[in-house]
Design brief:
Catalytic activity (chains A, B): 4-hydroxybutanoate + 2-oxoglutarate = (R)-2-hydroxyglutarate + succinate semialdehyde; (S)-3-hydroxybutanoate + 2-oxoglutarate = (R)-2-hydroxyglutarate + acetoacetate
Mean pLDDT of chain A: 96
Number of helices of chain A: 17
Protein name (chains A, B): hydroxyacid-oxoacid transhydrogenase
CATH architecture of the largest domain in chain A: Up-down Bundle
Structural class of chain A: alpha/beta
Pfam families (chains A, B): ADH_Fe_C, Fe-ADH
Oligomer: homodimer
Largest sheet of chain A: 6 strands, parallel
Radius of gyration of chain A: 20 Å
Largest interface: A-B, 30 and 30 residues
Strand order of the largest sheet of chain A: 2-9-6-5-3-4
Enzyme class (chains A, B): oxidoreductase
Keywords (chains A, B): Oxidoreductase, Transit peptide
Low-confidence stretches of chain A: none
Chain lengths: ~425, ~425
């Protein structure tokens, strides 16, 4: 029997320039008296976390700032953040100020300060125990400072498990932040390269949830079997469409001129909207592919350094890793629902500027044209991958069965091999 | 200084045929062990509340069913419901099964079982004390059985205060249900007349929030001054548009054939979407007008009996009362934003079937054509009002300053008089 039910949940939202200054009032309104502000060292240096702490204190909420988040969190970095939080004594709310890493770290802290056992007990199977939190967690308030992650809207904390050499997650409805404070002024200092990569993450969140297998095409679930990600559905569709339309009008502008406040504002909205979409529908092939693309960059001895990122080793940022196989992935998924793929191409390229020889090539062509304009690499080859690495990439993507199950077709290793091969040179 | 910030909040949602059967699992998931099911005698007779109670019991949640809600709740009916609930001893969740009256009654019960003082302390000023609840309320889970109210999405409990002879409300963010379970199968037995009137309520929720004064055109507020209704904003706009598009494809069909499951499903979605829109943006002139239109029907000695409602006295259902002045109200608001009014007309009449002499008459013409098709009265005159009643209607609408402040223009008594006069005979 086919599924007849879908679910939807979202954090409350406060959006607009100046929203950060009301943080204290909003956290006090949750009944909190002592809050932990979780951030990373890079964001700490911008002064935003201290501004958050000041707003908390002005509202009578004691505030402690920890720069305990690490870019691309690992089990070790999360445990260290939890240990540092435990040493602070009682807190009754966790405020994340930063990108996805800070928000995900705050989720892990909120979980482990309230629930028994070890972090690995809660990590998705088969890597971890896949246990659900038995007790309520501390409320997490998310203040995103980059436009991309969408973590402020979702139930997942992504982490690298070092010993297993695998990226996986902790996912449970209780991990969803209760409030997202989206102040686009915080993103004004984001470098163009970060805006471009993180923006491709937004775009793929929206495109993947829009083209995901519809909820009604899964087998009917029992109540206890439901997960937050239920496939494309009328509500996620709406968020995805609106996000793509916002991106069409603002993405190139925000990359070209980071001081364009209107474009920054629209990108911040687009990021949150896409998060509300994929946080309920799910993502599929490009995100599954992104795990090995980002994860194997050291194994292949790449020396790729992304513009805009202050890194001292090879790195493919998450949004870039997602983007690099997106054109080929949406060529693969085209037949599952041509109309949706063409509609998305139309939202992203409303004047029909980008042409393609056949309908299935239109959305890939629109994506490729955008990626050229915003300075994405020209393909997997540019970040260091070659023909010899295809087997490893396929193997890594196949491990992401939770994501592949959301694709609108049964994805095989052959499919993925084709996608990775076509992504070596996009232009 | 102009406002730069808007807010958004919503209940979690479970939608689809069969959703009601998962109620127990979902309420247990809130940590509840004993729930009060609030309904009204009419809905009780359908068996839905008992089905809800069975689902609760099967999930280990003790359930008590009270048919303590009254159509168009009053302070007296709410107090009686609270008294009956108090006599049950401890409950830790309130489940509403029914229309807006049941959901609003559940909100009042949830508030008064947890907070000190009297009901009138919490009623909006100037009728009541306008106090905010000082303590968390019991979680309310709403199971709407009619497609209209949107109360499952909103923070307000509407009531008639008998002594003051005025309809007002209790409004606070804490009153918003935590979960809406929208099972369109529950609406299959809704009579055509109820589908028509309640459907006009949906339509006006969406149209009024879409045409509301934009949030950025209010004066800047401090954090503690914010209210759940913040004017038109990008998120409410999205819900409103989608609701209107759904209504365009389903409203006439659902009235004509109540067994059309697809149309019922779309109407149920449209109702929830419109609730998510107006629950954050607000409503304005048609809803302000509806208070005296529904409220003064006894004073004028009307003998109007609406089709589909089992009533033994004159009554203008809420949705009908809202609809009757909507065409004239949207002619009044046209100049504030012609493009929005024309866009809405286009969503409701995508083939451009309804013509009008001038742009400002297009949306009113689309509404009037719809109202004729679904059997709405031909104007205020048909429900009993005449020229002599205009002063009283204007006076009543002017009392709804909270709603009128959301209109996209400064609404005067003269404006309202023009709207009521033009609404006496719509065709």
């Amino acid at each position: 029997m086919s599924e007849t039910v879908f679910t939807y949940a979202a954090p409350a939202l406060k959006y607009g320039p100046g929203a950060l200054d009301e943080l204290g009032h909003d956290v006090a309104g949750l009944g909190a008296t002592r809050a932990l502000v979780v951030t990373d060292p890079g964001v700490l240096a911008t002064g935003h976390p201290e501004r958050a702490a000041q707003s908390l204190r002005a509202a009578g909420v004691e505030a402690v700032v920890h720069d305990s988040a690490r870019v691309e969190p690992t089990d070790a970095s999360l445990l260290a953040a939890v240990e540092r939080a435990r040493a602070e004594g009682t807190v009754d709310a966790v405020v994340a100020v930063g990108g996805g890493s800070s928000i995900d770290t705050a989720k892990a802290v909120s979980l482990m300060l309230t629930n028994p056992g070890e972090l690995m007990d809660y990590v998705n199977r088969p890597v971890g125990g896949g246990q659900a939190p038995s007790r309520p967690v501390l409320p997490v308030v998310a203040v995103p400072t980059t436009t991309g992650t969408g973590s402020e809207s979702t139930t997942i904390c992504v982490l690298d498990v070092l010993q297993a050499q695998v990226k996986t997650g902790i996912s449970h409805a209780r991990l969803r932040p209760v409030l997202a404070v989206v102040d686009p002024e915080l993103t004004l200092s984001q470098p163009a390269g970060v805006t471009a990569a993180a923006g491709m993450d937004i775009l793929c969140h929206a495109l993947e949830s829009w083209t995901a297998r519809p909820y009604s095409m899964f087998a009917a679930k029992q109540a206890h079997e439901r997960v937050p990600y239920c496939g494309a559905n009328p509500i996620a569709d709406m968020w995805s469409e609106r996000s793509l339309r916002l991106l069409a009008g603002s993405f190139r502008r925000a990359v070209a001129n980071g001081s364009d406040r209107e474009a920054r504002g629209q990108m911040a909205l687009a990021a949150t909207f896409a998060g509300l979409g994929f946080g309920n529908a799910g993502v599929h092939v490009p995100h599954a592919d992104a795990y090995p693309v980002a994860g194997r960059v050291h194994d292949i001895g790449s020396d790729f350094r992304p513009a805009g990122y202050d890194v001292d080793e090879a790195m493919v940022p998450h949004g870039m890793a997602v983007a690099l196989t997106a054109p080929a992935a949406f060529a693969l998924t085209f037949d599952a629902d041509p109309q949706r793929h063409l509609a998305a191409a139309g939202w992203l390229d409303p004047t029909g500027e980008v042409t393609a020889d056949e309908p299935s090539a239109r959305l890939p062509a629109v994506l490729t044209a955008l990626m050229r304009d915003i300075g994405m690499p020209s393909g997997l080859a540019e970040v260091g991958y070659g023909e010899a690495d295809l087997d490893g990439l396929v193997e890594g993507a196949l491990q992401q069965q939770r994501l592949l199950a959301t694709a609108p077709l049964e994805v095989t290793g052959e499919h993925l091999r084709g996608v990775f091969a076509a992504s070596l040179h996009l232009w």
